[in-house]
Amino acid sequence: MRILIIGCGYVGLPLGQALAGLGHEVHGIRRSKFSAEGITTQALDITQRGALDELPKNYDWVINTVSSSRGDLEAHRSVFVYGTRHLLEWLGESSTHLLFTSSTSVYGQLDGSWVDEHSATNPSGGTGGHLREAEETLLAAPHSATVLRVAGIYGPERGFLFQQFVKGEAVLSGGGNRWLNMVHRDDVIGAILTTMELEPGIYNVADNEPVTQRAFLEWLADRLGKPMPPEGESSPRKRAVTSKRVRNAKLKAAGWALRFPTFREGYEALIREE
Fold first, then answer.
1. Longest dimension (CA), the chain
2. Would you say 251 and 169 are in contact if contact means Cβ atoms under 8 Å apart?
3. Angle at 243 between CA 67 and CA 181, to 5 degrees
4. N or C: more exposed end of the chain, with fewer CB within 10 A?
5. Which domains does the chain have, with CATH numbers?
6. Is 214 helix (H, G, I), strand (E, B) or coil?
7. Which DSSP state fits 78?
């Protein structure tokens, strides 16, 4: 197949290489110039209307894995809301299949309840709202579209709370009772490959075991032989604070097999590599 990956970054780049390894023709774009083995690359910015016009439209799949780790809320809105609109304008009535990596932040629950793909999406913060708007725009378009609601991604050189803990900057906020949902980057790539073989729809991508902040930090403290962080308030982030437990049953029932079923296996592998 001929595949375009928008946002060849932390997930998109290894995804493209995995697809190329399977024999697909892979093209990839991101804002800055880059090169990658097996991928035809180009620097384009989807926040700019018309930027995609120089590309052909004869792709079997367009996979949007963009991220917005830098910048303010308006920059985040430009990437996800306007970027999605520009993508659809460019595709027009093309028969291309679309896949978008959204986030479990669209679930705004605060009470620790379990959520699945049918649960209410009432994000309490700007980033979750932008992602939900992007989802709605994509799903309303006349294309075959799949949305993956991805939990907090960790992996090599990635994992916000883990990195804070290692640096001695982590704090136990609100008693540590907030629920966290995680997934290793390798399993996100596996989820994308799996859903490309499934009917279009919405799928949650999270590992098998949500964990409270306290339980996660206790495991890290025990594993690394470090003291527990002090009580305190964490620094503000663009993403709103939520507390829910994300079910992955739909995707697992469809054949997704996790390489790292829980945070323990995933972080154990990362710790051993360091």
1. 57
2. no
3. 55
4. C
5. 2-273 (3.40.50.720)
6. helix
7. I
Alpha helices in 26-82 (DSSP H): 73-77
Predicted confidence band at 273 (pLDDT cuts at 50, 70, 90)?
confident
Contacts of residue 204, Cβ cutoff 8 Å, sequence gap at least 6: 104, 115, 116, 117, 148, 149, 151, 246, 247, 248, 250, 251
Distance CA 219, CA 214 (A): 9
Question: β-strands 179-180, 211-212: how paired?
Answer: antiparallel
SS3 of 226-248: the string is CCCCCECCCCCCCCCCCCCEECC
Taking the complete model, does pTM exceed 0.85, yes or no?
yes
pLDDT at residue 126 tops 90: no
Rounded to whole angstroms, the Cα distance separating 212 from 85 reads 36
Q: How big is the chain, counted in residues?
A: 274
Q: How much of the chain is helix, strand and coil, in % rounded to 5? A: 35, 20, 40
Outline where DSSP puts E strands in 119-208: 145-150, 152-154, 179-180, 182-184, 202-205
